[in-house]
Amino acid sequence: MATEVVLNPQIIEVLILLAAALLLFASEILSVDVIAISLLLYLTTRGILPIEDALEGFGHPAVIGVGALFIVSEGLLRTGALGFLSNHLQEWSRGSHRIMTALILIIVMIASAFLNNTPVVAMFIPVVLGVCLRSGMNPSAVLIPLSYAAILGGTCTLIGTSTNILVASIARESAGIELGMFEFTKMGAILAAVGLVYLLTVAPKLLPERQTITSLASLGGDRRHREYITEIEIRGGELIGKRFGDTILATAGKVRILQIIRGEEVIWPPLDDEMLDLGDALVISGTIEDLMEVQDQTGVASLSEIVSEARGTATQKEAQLAELLVLPSSPYVGQLLGSVELRRRFGLNVIGLQRHGMHMRSKISEHPLRIGDVLLIQGTPEGLDRIRGEEGLVLMSGVDDVVVRKGKAPLAILILIAIIGLLSTQIWPMATVALAGAVAMVVTGCISGTKIYEAVQWKVLVLIAGTLALGKAMETTQTAGWLADQVIHLQPYVGPYGLVVVTLIAAALLTEMISNAAVAAVLVPVALKIATQLELAMGREVSPIPFVMAVAFGASLSFLTPIGYQTNTLVYGAGGYRFSDFAKVGAPLVLIIWAIAGTLIPYFWPLYS
Predict the structure, then answer these.
(1) Residues in a beta bridge with 394
(2) Among 143, 257, 379, 538, which is most exposed with the fewest C-beta within 10 angstroms?
(3) What average pLDDT does range 393-406 have in this prediction?
(4) How far is residue 49's CA from residue 37's CA, in Å, rounded to a whole number?
């Protein structure tokens, strides 16, 4: 009979720490890497983990392997290894929007099975926008399926997503379980195929029609597009000393005033009786045309002037509007608009900012940029050309993919094939093969030595290292065992196979709120304990692999929110979607995936040996 873990003060402390970490990850109050480092500090200062154990995560095979594969992925993308396929989409589709969508999703799905899916989606966003501009498609009909296809493709192999790498590494270290390159394929391929059918048949009926600058061009100038948030500052003129309700800003009805910022004070609506003063900053929302008209008012400084302190823009004849998407690897994440200096470096003026769910507590010019932000910019064609290909930014209007080292594409593909082959044989550990692949990319000139540091998503690696320490603390304090006991109590009601489904759903729900890597690091130790406790309760040998796989697939399949997975965050901004759009399109897919995975995981990986 299984001996239950007794709840003690240390377990309670770790549970509180776990809950606090989950809340912080979900709230995005702090950056994920800051939260991860804070976890390390707490665990060591409280004596829960020795400093050596807490820092082990930075040298963990999963961290090394994921970091090296970031470099391999970047080498393939920068050589244009996928460029040939993407550049011929319109030709192959023969004018059919449905065929074109299918080709895009299939290419992305296959690519994501062997490359990190975040850079794949980042590369395809401008490709999709360019194709949509030429063909008359609306990008919002393609971008959510694009993200979902990348997620589904990533579940098909060991290296398709950092989640699989992390799960396999923890399972190997903690339980001696070896998960090979294609161990995930039998389940992942089925889910990908079912998902592809859903995205091509059901999803189009659920997808909303949202507008971007690109879709404006393809729709012949329809102005029913999404709003941007911008900031203006009162620096003189007739607005000073006037009651806000009597000014043109209140009576024009073209823009919405979200708040007035006066020094450290934030004044919220209703604002009609508020007297305007010199230096007041007004946060406003409206369409592109309306925002530009308001910023032309006498005595008003535009956002561009506020962040650059330089008046004047490109002439009306030359000026073009475009959008810039901020990527996860961008060095601009966390920087203020003023410090980005787009005007000085590229001659571009920032007109507005598009960020879903933004709750302003300070001036826009003082808000740090986040992943998925979309900047509305204005400048000359020359200025836009100069920023094309800038690290960490995607120009989203009328552009195609940027190929840096075309002649190296065959070499990059050969390196990827070698990596897949070596991982399939399991001669060397995954981290060793990935490092060898990264070195080969640099030695062969597929990516320069300086670019490799930009290719690595350091925040992701720090996050993994920090959550690995939390997972280790859960093991050493028996917190994982206590949580496993609570799950085992459900066994009389759901049965042993039902526990696999419970594990799957728990991982899937958590990954909608926090990083998939964090979910994997925390839940794999719990999954292993569930198998151990179930074995003691059943009096027969129970395989931990079904529970490990339930965590792997559950943590990877984020379809309900735009914040659970980085590819969703990217298309969230680029497609002009609302938060609820993801749940509307993703909820039926989630139920289908849960039903298939819950049924087939125990079939492919039997519960009893």
Answers:
(1) 325
(2) 538
(3) 55
(4) 14
